[in-house]
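Shipment paperwork, digital attachment
Item: protein structure file
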Amino acid sequence: MMHRRGGKRIRMDDPVPPEYEAPMTPMTPMTPMTPLHETASNELQESYSSYASYQAPQTPIHNPTPEHYSPDSYSSPGTSHQQQQQYVEQTTSFEPAAQFEQPMTPLAPANMRITRNTRARLRGSTVQQPKYKEIDTDFIPTVAPRGRGGGGRGRGRRVPHSNNLEDEASLYYIIKNNRSSLTTIVDDWIEKYKIDRGNALLMLMQFFINASGCKGRITSEMQTTMEHVAIIRKMTEEFDEESGEYPLILPGQQWKKFRSNFCEFVQILVRQCQYSIIYDQFLMDNVISLLTGLSDSQVRAFRHTATLAAMKLMTALVDVALTVSINLDNTQRQYEAERQKAREKRAADRLESLMAKRKELEENMDEIKNMLTYMFKSVFVHRYRDTLPEIRAHCMAEIGVWMKKFHQNFLDDSYLKYIGWTLHDKVGEVRLKCLQALQPLYASEELKLKLELFTSKFKDRIVAMTLDKEYDVAVQAVKLVISILKHHREILTDKDCEHVYELVYSSHRAVAQAAGEFLNERLFVPDEEAVAGVKTKRGKKRLPNTPLIRDLVLFFIESELHEHGAYLVDSLIETNQMMKDWECMTDLLLEEAGPEEEALDNQKETSLIELMVCCIKQAATGEAPVGRGPTRKNMSAKELKQVQDDKQRLTEHFIQTLPLLLDKYRADPEKLANLLAIPQYFDLDIYTKSRQEQNLESLLKKIHTIVEKINDTEVLDTAAKTLEHMCIERHAIYTSCDLARSTLIDMIVNKYKEAIDEYRSLIEGGDVPNEDEIFETIQSLKKVAIFYSCHNMNPWGIWDSLYKDIEGARDPARCLPHEAVKYCISACFFAILWGQNHLLEAVDSGSKRGEDECCELKKRLHILMDQMCYLVGGDGNAVVVPPILREEAYNSICDLLVMFCNQLSTHHNPLMHHLVYETDQNMQNMLNKFIQEYVFCEEEDDEHDEHSKIEELHKRRNFLAGYCKLIVYNMMPTKAAADVFKHYVKYYNDYGDIIKTTLGKARDINKTNCALTMQHSLNILYNEIVAEKGKVSRNSEEFTAIKELAKRFALSFGLDAVKNRDAIAALHRAGVLFAITPPDGVELDPTGPPPNLAFLEILSEFTNKLLKQDKRVVLNFLDKRLQAGMPSSRGEDWQPLLLYRNSLLHGETDQVPVTSKRAYTRRKKDLLAEEEEADEADDNSDHEFMGKFKKKRGPRKNQLSVNKTSMPKSIRSSTLYDSSNESPAQPMSPSCGLNIDDVSNIPSHEIDGRLKSLQIQSKSRRSVDISGPRELRRTARNSGRYIEGQYMESDSE
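Attachment content:
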């Protein structure tokens, strides 16, 4: 008996290759098929779409009934027997309507062997006596026999070719190993063919067989005595396919090169033989016959290889046909020229020679056309809808080549329909090939007339494919629609165009840019006449792009996606130069409209400014908008040069025009917020290089004035960031900008001090501030907070004043307005961060001020955190803290915990170690309580409008992300996430992504702790039901919701049970303990079920994640804790235990235990012995996973005694988690036993360690002191199975 290697289990889920699935090659299941004829051949009809329903017979026995078409639906063959008629060769006087009724696609018998007579019969010529049977009536398709692998995939990628069977002189060996150029190989083969064509043909046939991955050999005797059908049958029988792989699909550079050489070889062969050999009635007859037969095989490798070869052969014959056509035209022209000469000047022999040559060329052309027609009917018509997508893709790719090259013959609706039908293919690659085949046809001006009918029939499908789920297909579909727009503009309706318009906002960049090209072709067409003579009010001539930019603004407004201007810009900026026409844009904004044009209204000006700033940003950075993937990694040198040039040009322009724009729109906050961002994308060195200091001074003054007079948050925020960008020390303008910044901050601080002093004096005097005084106080603090976020304002010494107002928030009588206190909190938060940043710089520079600054910073940090905790938690006071302050304080705590986490303890300077701030249990509980109140709350539907709801949800998501961040970065233990995890299902739509990510990160930190956290969250929900209703009803909605959550948790573990083995076992252990232990540790009714027993039904959702041997361990643990005997009445209360045990016994031979009166009785020793023997017998019979267990007694002195005690509540909770979250669970030694019996006398970490070891035990229910520890051992006989003594290799993590 053969044994498996490497300790791997047999995989039972690999699919069987299609050639072994069914005795016939099935048709492509593109769309549902319905019966067509009630015939013995079981013909099927496939409905590609509303356009067509196509009939094709089964393979390989084809029904020779011809196809017919309906003129009004561009349909597939008709179904009426009266309509059946024989194929009539296409004439030159083609009419589209008639062609639909008589297409050029009759079916040929699959077992027909093509000969000169066959072609003669097809074109109505004299039929010679055949040398051999044309129809093999005795051909019966055979199924490839199953070898010892059954065609299933093996463990490794094994190449199905053995070198000992490869003849080094064979074509396959030479081409595979690149022994010489393909032209030389073909020339050598032609020489052999001239000497002995039979032997050379045998080499060629063997090449196609070997290229399919078949080891079979065609002998000379087989070639001379057997038909091709019989040869193929013989090769099929010898096809010892073990891995289902063959050269065309094998990975690696060698096989990629072979695929390329294979196709090229076929084409070179035909090209080198094009003048005589292909017409010798021997080579092409045999090659076409062989390939036709192979393409009909049930063996996928034969079918795929032969179809590819046949398609490339047809492409090569098309090239030959073009050459013959050119020669025929030249000969005809020479003949006509000679015939036009006067009689005395004519050369009679030359006329005869030209006539003979013309006749020969015409015969050659007929011969090639017949070959093409035969192969198209015998191969393409059946393989374009093969089950294998690669075969369908090959067919579509090649028919496109034929139509482009030999359009006289192939660019016809009877051929185009195949592409049209296949546009509905289920596989994206095939749809892509269809569109790529049509692309060059539509790009040609001379071919557009032949595509009118096809376009009218399939235009809707092509437009719909612009929304294809495969982005590559969608891109090609948009490009094809662009071609249709160019050559068939009238066919596309406005609705069709609107479908494509919307794609400029697509999240996929290539699709959006293709849609941008469509916009350029449809809407943004330059028209210089439109602006001829148009001038502004002061007489400046409008630039050519003016009407296009007006149209762009109008398009942006009408699209109603005003928050996605960056997406629209990204779609157009690389294909339309108007997007960088800065002068045109600023002229529209600054110049007043002339008499012949319409002025921009306020909405258009706002939209134009937004688009202009988006263009500036992308031109200066070269970065696509956030969320539009795939993201580019590194720009090339050419792209970097382009970005630098664009940045320089826009800087030179806006240095002069930006102050004018700021001045014009100084009272419009919405426009200012965009305009103030422009300097962030300047090349600031140009100010000094171009001597533009005056414009710099003007810009800084404008910013100062705007900050002083405007109170809009977005404007102030943008101004602060722009000033931060301009105050970079490395630039020459730093001194000027820093001076302007200091002046600006002086103004802000002075206004704050004035406002706050006045407010405090009023409060102290017992007066009530009026609205203006309150407004001034709030706005001055807003400016302080916003500029503190970008600029270090610590030197201005306002910390004490700001902190005093935070402290004052405790006293409602002396408290500032809540919004003002919020800005105080924000300013103090940034003061702490700037202090940390300054300290890091001081420490790095070796300054002695570091110690004093560190103590001051630590003091400020702790007093601020205390105040924040008071505001978030209330500290038990009776004062109600307003939500705006609680929210700001919560965000500050979360961010400060991140900034001052234990990572500072790794800093090289010991001073930084003192700044670490760690959470305590009270803070964790406080933060948890906050998110339970503010995040997981039911919102009132009618309270806000849709926009407000979205804003509110965004705020709550930020609260939750801040809390989860502390767990993910290990600043709080994983256990703190239990109250978050319990809402996973209920709030999945709002926060599912955040909770799922937190689950994943927590699992990365420590799998066991994460699993125990899940179990703890289920416990919390269970206890909530108990607290609310007193008793858990297993049919209640609440209980069902907990089961659903457990199911979702179980799914999150994935399919790798080995990787999560320790974690799942720990989860079951904790769950069992929760279910069987009374809440207070005291048994109320020893004969009744434990109060939490229903929890076992929830726990059963995780059973399928246990390995089979671990189910036994958990079952033993359960039985030792809770004897499985139940009252004879089998009461409802005991059903969860039955359910859980049955889930653990699933697939085993164990039986549900016999019931008894008492639940907690100890079984007798003789019963234990009997069950042990039975279990060992079961173990021996379980051959798939376990192997044979060999009992090996070990020393008993170290065994723990079994104590039947109740578990105190404190110990229960402490054993749920590992002491550390920082390191993932370590794999245990295989020799460790799994003893999860007694928990009262063992520290929790030891219990968890023993749980993780997971030694495989039998299902015996003995107490531990009866037997010693078992060993695990691997033996040669049982390699790859679970044997006592060793883990399987694949089971170690």
